Each structure stands twice: as C-alpha cells, then as structure tokens.
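Hey, I'm writing a tutorial for new members on how sequence and structure tokens pair up, and I'd like a real worked example in the thread rather than a made-up one. If someone can provide the structure for the chain below, I'll link this post from the tutorial.
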Amino acid sequence: MKKIILFFSFIFLLQNSFSQNFTRPNDWKKYRQEIIVQVGVSQFLGDLGGLNSTGTDYSPADIEFAATKPSLSFAYRYKLAKNFNIHSSLNYLLVAGDDKLTAEKFRNNRNLNFKSNIFELAARAELSVFYSNAGHRYGIKNTAASRHKSKSNELIGFIGLGVFYFNPKGKDPNTGSYVKLYPLHTEGQGLPGGPKQYKRISISIPMGVAWRMSVTKLLNVGVEFNYRKTFTDYIDDVSTTYYFDRAAQADAYGPQSLALSDPSLGDIPGASLPNGDGTGAQRGDKENDSFMSMQIKVGYFLSPKRKKTRLRSKF
C-alpha cells in the first residue's frame, strides 16, 4: 500500500510539469467525454496451478502463461480536470488454473483445476501526465509545421472500486466435462465442522497503469495493465482443507462432490487424508485470490458541441 501511495504522489507532483496538447488554456473542456473499447488477456493468481516452486503463489512470480485467457472491456471516461479523470467500466474476463501445469510436487499431486467467467463493474479515479508534440498553432498551410500533426502521449495511474461475479467450474475426472463447483460444496460447506458456503459476488480493488497516444483529435490508442485485489478466496473454489468426513460429504452432496473435491494422483500417499487429530488435510492457502488483465485499448472522444457565433455590428 505504501508503494501505491508513493506512485500516485509521484504522478501528482509531475502532472504540472507537462501539459496536454491544447492550443488554448480551456480546450480540454471540449473533450471531456470518451468511450473506450479494450481487448486483451487475463491471468489468475490463487491456489491452483502456477510455476514450479513453493512460496511463489499469489505473486506475479507464480504466473503460468499457459493459463492465459481472453478479456474484454467497455468503458466511459469523463475528464473533471486537465489531469484528473473519472472512469467506469464493464469488464469480462475468463480466468483458469490447473495443477497439471506445475511441476511443484504437492500442487501437481493435488490435481485440481478450474475455470470461471468473471463479470466486473468498476469505477476508478485517474491521475495523468502528458507529453505533447504540437503542430502549428494556427494551422498555416504549406508549412513544415502544418505537416507535423500534433500528438499527445498520456501516462495514467489509477485506483478504484469494483464488484464482480464469478462461478467456478471444474473438470469431472470421470466424464471429462466441466461442471459447476458451487453446488457440490467441495470443502464440506454447510456440514458440521465445515466452513460456511461462500458468496459468488465479491469486491475488487482495481489498480494499475495505462498509456495512450492520440491518433487524431478524437481517436486514440493505448495499452493498460489492471491488477485486482479481491476479498474472496473462492474464485477457484479452493480455500482451506479437505472435509474430514468423506462419507458425510458423499451422503449430503453425492459422489461427484467427492470426485471434484479430491482427484489427487496419489503420488504423495495420504496427502488428502484427515490429520491424526481428525481435522481435514490442507487443500489450499488462506489468502485471497487476485486477477489481472493486459489490454489494448481504443478510445474515442465524443465530439464537442459547437456554439453558434453571433455576428456583431460595428454600429
């Protein structure tokens, strides 16, 4: 959090050192509203999959690129001041994880997998820094300056708040088809001694950086990295321990619940069996999941309304 505060403080201190490419002081007010389309890839950081060592899960060092999935966003930005924007977006991400992708022996033996659609509605505040290459102020024809079109590059830092829905699915080891995991209570949710059932709607804190370059006065292109901190550990349907009473779990939720709860390979004998004190064996870590996206963006400013000029008589 200290690093985030320092980052935005740095942007705030620099924003007065650069100016947007507006030929008049208040020209930016003509281009307040912008609609944006973004497309790119998404990644998940949680209990499942990851790279081939311990102690790296939940960090960018654990990203498994083979689990990269698509993402899509539609956004609206409103410029409150020259260097301050309010941004709202509707985002779709597909996230996934699979223990088969890691050579780390405990996770690989666990053999769990998931995929989930995420639908997120988010709003954020943005601070921006501009670097401009201005063309000729008066647009005089047949001059070298007129042939040099004005360009502006914008670096944006942002943080916000979002709400998202997820619904994890896992591959049934018996049929090979994906089934919804929430109704199966794979960690014994709702049973005596088990955890409460989780909610599939949670809060996210999007934060990141973006860069964009003007193509015309109304059109711009860029790229954005958006990391989301969340307040749920169940995006992948994995959080704490295997339920200690397998018979009770099967009676309550059926044999498919057991199959999706523990498809382990058996390479580490007893890894998923109850501990000596009767408690369930470790299935996941008690740390909230996160997800992120990297997207290419295209933005279009809504054309400003032109006021009718009134001719004044000299007399």
